[in-house]
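Hey, can you fold this one?
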Amino acid sequence: MRDKLKERELQRILFSGTFVRYGTKRGWKGRTEQTILFEDVKDGQGIVRADHLWFTMTKGFAALGELNEGDVVRFKARVREYVKGYMGRSDDESEHPIELDYKLSNPTDIEKVEKKVVRLPKGQTLLEV
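Sure. Predicted structure:
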């Protein structure tokens, strides 16, 4: 669970995250939706609230253009509770038990921050450029 997000539940605040990669997920009626992954998601005070978060690709994120790994993106979002885990018809739910977690919803005021973070191949150390 993302306990540090839980502390800010229902609040709309400023966040920043480091872009990792694009992805896809199955959406409504099997449609493929593009997603975007950020790591080290921090609030406006610089406190890391989540180690990583996935977002559906919104018009706001798409308007940034092509992001490169390490680009820092700033946005406002609301902290919301959601239910995660396997909710299918299988008897074996032990691999993905149902539990509460926290996400960021309705991102707005999305902008790419000028500073870039470069990932070094050895040891995965981050440097600001």
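The mean pLDDT is 85. Let me know if you want another pass with a different chain boundary.
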